């Protein structure tokens, strides 16, 4: 104790000035690095390190999480449903759910704004998902599948498309090549649907072949899992095409069927959210509520789609009879309070969604739709009018 007191008493003001200057310099360098990393990858480096490494380490499951993640990243992992599933840390910024087509919709955004719709971080996650879904150990020695393994990692879109065409020249039954062309070469949803229908025929034939051979060893079993992933992915994209082209009943049926057969590795696609979107477009609110009952966990929100849909349904229950004057006198009843809490929960989970309404941001849709701009302008202090321009 005496030594530490003597040491502190001998420190001069120059030491504190140097300490302050050094800490400020280090903080500035960290800030610059964070800014650069966020601009390049679309996420915080410190946040990723804390979520993926520090938090699991402190909680004592770092080794187990790494082992599970290693198994999940390997397309040849054990398919036993009772085996431990990879523990993915919850975060509000979730993986790119592949809800838009790169060619038909992301390119339209680029043409309209001259801004890249996807960051490098998004592209990396998307490439990882494609590789996990569409590759397996049975692809070794098959030129067309080896080409597609590298195609998903290519930065240049033209190189990716050229690789897909090369793969189809070597094997016209290479379903992943059709998927890449539908995603990126097609410039409209109609074109994407046409290519995906070709892919569906090929994927179904490949699935039937591997299904008959899946018990002939681990390699064939891995190939069958891959073919199943490809088939489900194509069906989901076709259902999305049907919804975007106005064939809502067909889309709902396809999404309902898919929710029953999705393997754990494909859960990242969030097909139940596609089902919710289609049902909302049909104004089938009772069906939406039934879907939400399975997936909405109040204590652990899972997505903006679920949070805002739950808030919408609760607000609709009280909106017709709600009066600000009456509510100010008697207070909010339980149903109204539940609606308010649901709205707060949704905004807290993702505060950016309302800005598309309140700040009059345009929604850029593909060419087969009319361009729709949702505009909410205040008429009076507490009065808003919803205008939709086509």
Could you explain the architecture of this structure?
By secondary structure, the chain is mainly α. It folds into 4 domains: 14-67, no CATH class; 101-284, Tetratricopeptide repeat domain (Serine Threonine Protein Phosphatase 5, Tetratricopeptide repeat), CATH 1.25.40.10; 296-352, no CATH class; 354-390, no CATH class. The chain is built from 18 helices and 2 strands. The chain has helices at 2-9, 13-41, 45-59, 62-73, 102-113, 120-134, 143-151, 157-170, 175-185, 189-213, 218-244, 248-259, 271-281, 285-295, 304-319, 324-330, 334-349, 355-358; strands at 373-380, 383-389. A two-stranded antiparallel ribbon has the order 1-2. α9 runs antiparallel to α10 (189-213) and α13 (271-281) runs antiparallel to α14. Mean pLDDT is 76; it is low at 61-94 and 364-390. The chain crosses the membrane at residues 15-38. Its main location: membrane. Keywords: Membrane, Transmembrane, Transmembrane helix. Residues 65-87 are annotated as: Disordered. It is found in: Membrane.
CATH fold annotation of the largest domain: Serine Threonine Protein Phosphatase 5, Tetratricopeptide repeat
Q: How many beta-strand elements? A: 2
Number of helices: 18
Give the N-terminus to C-terminus distance in angstroms.
77 Å
Q: Can you identify the CATH superfamily of the largest domain?
A: Tetratricopeptide repeat domain
Mean pLDDT across every amino acid position: 76
Reading the helices and strands in chain order gives: HHHHHHHHHHHHHHHHHHEE
- Enumerate the strands of the largest sheet in spatial order, edge to edge or round the barrel: 1-2
Beta-strand percentage? under 5%
Main structural class: mainly alpha
Q: Could you list the spans in which at least 5 consecutive residues all have pLDDT below 50?
A: 61-94, 364-390
Q: What is the alpha-carbon Rg in Å?
A: 26 Å
The coarse overall form would be: globular
Under the CATH scheme, the architecture of the largest domain is Alpha Horseshoe
Let me know the largest β-sheet. Answer: 2 strands, antiparallel
Helix content: 55-70%
CATH classification class of the largest domain: Mainly Alpha
Number of domains: 4
